Structures are given as C-alpha cells and as structure tokens.
C-alpha cells in the first residue's frame, strides 16, 4: 500500500511483539526516517492517546467508515490506571472472528505519524552553461542532447 501512496512521508508501526519484525522490514524498505517503530508502552499511550481522543471527539477526524467492527474497535479504548488504551481481552467481529481493536490502534498510529511528518525534499537543478565545460564534457553533453530530446524532456 505504501508504494501506491503518492507523496508518502511518514508512517508508524506497532513494534511490540510480532510487530517488531514487520516494523524493522518497513524501516529497511522505506527508511527509518519515514517509518517509526513504536513500542506501545503505558508511557507512549499516556503521551499520544489524549491528542487522538480529542481529535475523535472535536470533529477534527471526519468521515469515519460506517463499519460496525471499525466503530467497535475505536470504542474499545478505556482508561486503565488513568491512561487510555485498549484492554487485553478480545472481542468478536460481525463475522465471528476474534478482534483486538486493530483498526483503533492503526488509526492511533496514523494520528501519531501525522504529527511528525517528514519534510518533502525539494531540489533545484544546477544551470549548465556549455561554455564553462571542458571540451570532452561538451561532447558528452551534445551526444546526450541528440538522444530523442533527452535534455528538452527535463533529463538535465
């Protein structure tokens, strides 16, 4: 999915338990600067669920899917020792499969990642003046220019 997301800049993955391997693989493929491997500790929940809860209740997050299982996952968040998190017990989905609030956690991780976006990289091409190039380099430049409009198509 990330490969098909235009201008993807930041993501977060639950790195606790089996998620650690997946988070590491995502970091290898897309870069650790773009994928945060999050160890979802009580301290992490304490720091990040208040913002997420506020966004859910103040209308910042709009157009939640009208799916019962997704709604129920988000309703699983409970305060445990004063910290909002999803309790350890599992629930049953509308199709009878076991759930553990996965879409709520995924949404929480998206909210977290959105607070730390990676800036878009921008570049400016260096203007090339052929008269400043050594003769051998001018020949290479002229040869590239003759290749199907390579230079005029933005290749340089």
Gap between N and C termini: 31 Å
Compressed to H and E, one letter per element, the order equals EHEHHEEEEHHH
- Summarize model confidence as the mean pLDDT: 84
Main sheet: strand order:
1-2
Query: What is the count of DSSP helices, taking H or I runs of 4+ residues?
Result: 6
- Main sheet? 2 strands, parallel
Number of strands: 6
Q: Report helical residue fraction.
A: 40-55%
The geometry reads as elongated
Low-confidence blocks of residues: none
Beta-strand content estimate: 5-15%
Structural class: alpha+beta
Explain what you see.
By secondary structure, the chain is of the alpha+beta class. The protein has helices at residues 19-30, 42-58, 68-75, 102-114, 135-146, 151-155; strands at 11-14, 35-38, 78-80, 83-85, 91-92, 98-99. The strands form 3 sheets. Strands 1-2 form a two-stranded parallel sheet. It has a two-stranded antiparallel sheet with strand order 3-4. It has a two-stranded antiparallel ribbon with strand order 5-6. A hairpin with a 2-residue loop joins strand 3 and strand 4 (83-85). It is elongated, with a radius of gyration of 24 Å. The mean pLDDT is 84.
């Amino acid at each position: 999915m990330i490969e098909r997301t235009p201008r993807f800049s930041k993501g977060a993955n639950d790195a606790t338990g089996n998620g650690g391997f997946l988070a590491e693989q995502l970091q290898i493929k897309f870069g650790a600067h773009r994928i945060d491997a999050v160890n979802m500790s009580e301290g992490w929940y304490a720091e990040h669920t208040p913002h997420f809860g506020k966004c859910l209740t103040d209308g910042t997050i709009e157009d939640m899917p009208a799916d019962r299982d997704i709604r129920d996952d988000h309703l699983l968040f409970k305060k445990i020792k004063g910290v909002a998190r999803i309790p350890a017990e599992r629930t049953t989905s509308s199709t009878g499969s076991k759930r553990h609030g996965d879409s709520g956690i995924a949404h929480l991780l998206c909210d977290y990642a959105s607070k730390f976006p990676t800036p878009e990289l921008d570049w400016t091409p260096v203007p090339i003046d052929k008269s400043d190039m050594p003769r051998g380099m001018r020949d290479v430049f002229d040869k590239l220019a003759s290749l199907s409009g390579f230079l005029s198509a933005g290749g340089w």
